[in-house]
């Protein structure tokens, strides 16, 4: 952990190699997070790339070195949210084959439910989304999330529980 803090400090001073080391350590987690959110490996790679580019450009503004990982996930979350908005606003002409598949019994319900869950997820406050995403999508424990977001472990668990309960109630 101390080594990572030193790398963050070096990156904040403009050391590109230090930033590259930090990026290498969290790339898989960032990518996994983006794939779960976007459901598209290519878009996930693009979102991670954009997030890393933005982070590198503004790493000097990071206030606390120990917040680096959570900061990276917040940047990536914003990139993913923008892409999801773009998905929703995109108009696509459907091929005959795709139109038939969507019209098939039972094939639309799963997609509609997935869309509804995603929409409910994005209605949550930013901190709650981050907690759920880090736990559900990136596989972090409550303790790890609490440490990265500088929160109490019990607070993390209760916020996640309340947020998931809200989503479940709205799905019914």
Give the topology.
Blueprint: H1 2-12, H2 16-38, H3 41-58, H4 68-89, H5 96-103, H6 107-123, H7 126-137, H8 142-149, H9 153-171
Helix pairs in contact: 1-2, 2-3, 2-4, 3-4, 7-9, 8-9
Give a short overview:
This protein has 172 residues and is mostly helical.
According to DSSP, the number of beta strands is: 0
**What is the averaged pLDDT score?**
81
Task: Tell me the fraction of residues in β-strands, as a range.
Answer: under 5%
Major sheet description: none
Series of H and E elements: HHHHHHHHH
> Which regions contain 5 or more consecutive residues with pLDDT less than 50?
91-95, 97-108
What fraction, in percent, of the residue positions are helical?
Answer: over 70%
Whole-angstrom Rg: 18 Å
Our count of helices gives 9
Distance between the termini: 43 Å
Structural class: mainly alpha
General form? globular
Question: Can you put this structure into words, describing what you see?
Answer:
This protein has 172 residues and is mainly α. 80% of the residues lie in helices and 0% in strands. The protein is built from 9 helices and no strands. The protein has helices spanning 2-12, 16-38, 41-58, 68-89, 96-103, 107-123, 126-137, 142-149, 153-171. Helix 2 packs antiparallel against helix 3 (41-58). The protein is globular. Residues 91-95 and 97-108 have low confidence and may be disordered.
């Amino acid at each position: 952990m101390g080594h990572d803090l030193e790398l963050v400090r070096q990156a904040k001073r403009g050391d590109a190699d230090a930033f590259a080391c930090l990026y290498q350590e969290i790339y898989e987690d960032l990518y996994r997070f983006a794939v779960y959110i976007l459901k598209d490996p290519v878009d996930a790679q693009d979102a991670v790339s954009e997030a890393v580019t933005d982070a590198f450009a503004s790493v000097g503004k990071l206030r606390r070195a120990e917040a680096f990982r959570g900061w990276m996930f917040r940047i990536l979350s914003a990139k993913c949210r923008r892409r999801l908005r773009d998905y929703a606003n995109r108009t696509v002409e459907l091929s005959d084959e795709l139109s038939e598949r969507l019209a098939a019994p039972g094939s639309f319900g799963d997609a509609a439910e997935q869309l509804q869950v995603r929409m409910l997820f994005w209605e949550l406050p930013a901190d709650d989304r981050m907690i759920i995403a880090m736990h559900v999508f990136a596989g972090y424990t409550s303790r790890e999330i609490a440490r990265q977001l500088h929160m109490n472990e019990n607070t993390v668990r209760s916020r996640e529980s309340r947020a998931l309960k809200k989503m479940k109630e709205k799905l019914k």
